[in-house]
Each structure stands twice: as C-alpha cells, then as structure tokens.
Amino acid sequence: LHSQFKKIVVIGVGLIGGSFAKAVKQRGLAEEVCGFGRDAQKLQWGVDHQILDTFSVDIELAMKNCELVFLAVPLGSMEPMLKIIGPHLPEQCIVTDGGSAKQSFVNSSLKCLQNHLPYVLPAHPIAGKEVSGIEASDGDLYVDHRLILTPLEQTHEEVITKVTQLWQSLGAIVEKMRSDFHDEVFAATSHLPHFLAFNLVDLLNEHPELGDVFKYTAGGFRDFTRIASSDPVMWRDIGVYNSEAIAKWLRQYQASIANLADLVENQDAEALEKLFSRAKSARDKHIIKS
Amino acid sequence: LHSQFKKIVVIGVGLIGGSFAKAVKQRGLAEEVCGFGRDAQKLQWGVDHQILDTFSVDIELAMKNCELVFLAVPLGSMEPMLKIIGPHLPEQCIVTDGGSAKQSFVNSSLKCLQNHLPYVLPAHPIAGKEVSGIEASDGDLYVDHRLILTPLEQTHEEVITKVTQLWQSLGAIVEKMRSDFHDEVFAATSHLPHFLAFNLVDLLNEHPELGDVFKYTAGGFRDFTRIASSDPVMWRDIGVYNSEAIAKWLRQYQASIANLADLVENQDAEALEKLFSRAKSARDKHIIKS
After folding, report:
1. pTM score
2. Rg (CA), chain A
3. Do A283 and B212 lie within an 8 Å CB cutoff?
4. In what side-by-side order are the strands of the sheet with B30-36?
5. By the 8 A CB rule, do A255 and A116 touch?
6. Cα(B187)–Cα(B179) distance, rounded to whole angstroms?
7. What is the ipTM of this complex?
C-alpha cells in the first residue's frame, strides 16, 4: 500500500461520489480517478469539468488495476453493485463506500464479498447538501466534516490506515465506531430530524381548511423544514435500510410528544420552561452557532 | 385620527418593542416615541441609541397625551399590563400589541378594557430572531414580513385603517383574520415546529448511552434545531396562552408519527417515497428557497 493510489474508481458519481472524485483529483491523491456508471454523457461531463480523469460504462474495464473503489450509489443499489464488482475486484483492491446506513452495507459485504473481506471498509462521510447530482460536486465538501469508519472484524489494519489517511488528506475528521452504534446514533441525529421535517410539511399540506397555511410561515419554519427538501428516494432508502433504529427513535419521539402534549394541555408552565431551558442550554452548548 | 402620531408609547422594549420603536422613529411616524418599563437604565440606553425619544418608569406620565400604545411584553404580562394602563388611557388612545397568541389578548381586553374596546386592536407581527433584547432592535425587522390584525367586533374601522397604515409604513404586509383562526394557524406553522425542535434536542440530551451525540450532527440538524435556541420563557408563555390549539396539533403530529413509524417498521418503501415526495413538493412550491 502506498500513500498515493494508482487508480481509484468511483461508482455513482452524484454529489457524494463526484465531490470525493473531485477532492481526490484536486489534491493529486491518485494517478487516475475513474468514474463508473450507466450514463456516459453525465460521466463525460465529469471528465470535462475536472471531476474525473476517465470513465467507463464497462465494469470489467473500470475495475482493471483499481486500488480503491468508492461506492456512492443509493443504499438500495449497494448490494446489487457489490455483486456486480465482486468478480472483477483486483486482489487487495480496497472496497469502501459513502452510504448513510452501515449495518446493511456490512451485511451485504459478508454476503457478496466473502473472499475479499480484509479489504472491505464501510464508511460514512457526514456531509451533504439539499442539492444533489454531479453538477453540485464540491472538492471541499468534506473539509472539517466527520468521516465515520465502521470496520468489519476482518478488515486489515493497514486498510484502515490507508483509508484514514486518504480522508484526512481530503480534510475530514476520521473516527471509528461499530456499525450498529453508527446506525443508532445517526438514526437519532440525522434520520429522525429528516423524517420529522418531512412529516410536518406533509401534515400541514393535508389541512386545506387552514387555507394557504405556508404563507404564514417565517424563517424558523423555513430552517426547520429545510431538510424536507432533500431527495425523497435517498431518504426512502435510508428508512428501509436503517428501519429498526429509525422506527425505535420515532417511537421514542412519539412518546415524548405525548408527554409534551399533556404538559401543554395542563398549562404546566413550570415543566414547559424546564424542558425548553434544558433544550436551549444543550443546543447552545453543543451546536456551533450559526 | 391623523396619519402621523403625536405620541406613541411602547411597553416592553425588547426585540419586538424596540424594533417597532426604532422603525417608527427612523420613519418619522410619531413626534414622540416613549418607552415604558421598570428598567430605567435599559430605557436610557434605548434613548442613547436612537430607539426611543423619551422614556418613563411612571405609567401615568408615560400615558399622558399618548395616541397609540404598543404592548410588547411577554404573553403572561399582557393582562396585568392592561390592568395597569386601563385607568390612564387617554380617550381614543389606540391599544395594540405584538403578542404571538391572540385569543388570550382578546379575552384580556374584554375583561380589562370594557369601556375602551373600539380602540383595541390585537396584532401579531410575524417576525423574530433567536436573539432577544433591546440591543437586538432592528428598524427593518418588519420589512416584507406579515402583520396579522385580529380586530374585536367592537374595534372601530378607522382604528383598523390607522394601524394598518402605520404597519405598512414600517414595510409590513398587513392582513386581517379572526383571533381563533390566527391561533390555530400559528399553532401549526410556528408553535408546533418550535415545540418539536425543543423536544428533539431534549430527547437526545437525555440519552447518555449515545455519548456526545451532538458532535455527530451536521448542518441539517443545526438548521432543524435553530429554533430550539429561542427564549424558553417566551415559549413557555406561548404554550400556556395558546394551549388548546398547540395541544391539538401536538396530538395530530403524534398520530402521524405513529403512522410513519409503522411505515418504517414495515419497510414500506412505496409509502415512504410517496410521503417524502409530497412533502418535498409542498415545501419547494410554498417556501422561498434559501
């Protein structure tokens, strides 16, 4: 393993894959960054815009001499894609990804890449935007953002070192955790708020008796619901591939809302102020002001 | 009634009252903008910083020759304050306010100002920030923001006209609605999201087994929970003074979350995508991108 890669293949050149490709290219961390996908026109656009060096729509050609493959396809396409690349993986080629749920990727790897597990390293860059697509690729998307690695038991230490160094070179803050803990934490901090925001907008939208209710919303509502403008297909997949942890958090949230409704109904000023104060202190303490 | 006021009194010179005072003064819409409160030092600061022309800590002096009084105290102080100003109101002095719940102000007016009702006009400027206090006063806070009037049955038409013109001069988009409809709409579009955001932060904060969970949050979480950094006392009062509508919406939201948890548990990809797509379309259609 070297500190620079001969060839990196990015499968799924959207915002996450395209930003990774562009970041690697800009920093000269690979001799060749190759995009793989079905849409040759889109991939050519990536080459024209210095996001990719080369591209291929033929998986055998793409994987030739590849030292690291980065999967950035929707969660629902991860397992089918592992099946496709499996037969073409060069020995010692690192397989990593950028998916938002990790246990499902672990399970798919154990199923599809039994003979390649020391080189498999599931990963999740904590970065994103409400825009998507290759056009939104940003070589600095990962700077100062966390990157979570969830190694398999079988993953080689040197693979972990190599991938850690790569992401650190892209500016990310790299951390390791268990895949099930990852899914639990991100169900709480990312998946739950997204589902809550989608749900609120949908609830208001279903009440025509309120008239054009959205015109009475202000900046707070706009911020609160910004994540409800995210890609519905991506979030559908997250709901399906991290269903256990998300359902658990939704149930907990539901119970806490029932409790809050009781406090409001009882006009329990003291308890409301306590709850709101605790929340404000926690947020002001932990979240960077913006 | 004239298009310019001789004297306007602002009671409660925080963000809402201070911004109103400053906006009126900057536009020369009153010969005198007088602040009333208990904290002489704060009010003097307002005079020194061109937010107020004068101030008083004596209600009789403050109300002398007053043509319009704007109450911007916390909801819990509205009724006590109406009792205090009642005996000192000049004939034909307009009484209006900036509170976030309107039915409670209507009820308090009917109770405390029985002989003055034609001059009472409850109002709610749809503007705010997560900062508060006189120091945050902004003369352009109301520009291009909605201002909702909820007249009493008894309110004189010319009072409505006069207050409408005043707020329009401050840049606001003025609308009228029934006070109960107001409380219902804003319970849904403003109070509900605030309560949901406070509740999420508090829920995560209560789970030490997740470790320092907030460090794994990203921009989406920051935006979603920004309103959870709002003033706990103000929101406690909103919970108490609009309890019926808020409790109703919390219950509805709770039921819709139970349904969403079922969809996730069943990995119902089709229903999840449908819900998320409806929400995204509604938001993209109705909310100004930002």
Report:
1. 0.89
2. 21
3. no
4. B54-56, B30-36, B5-11, B68-71, B94-97, B120-121
5. no
6. 12
7. 0.89
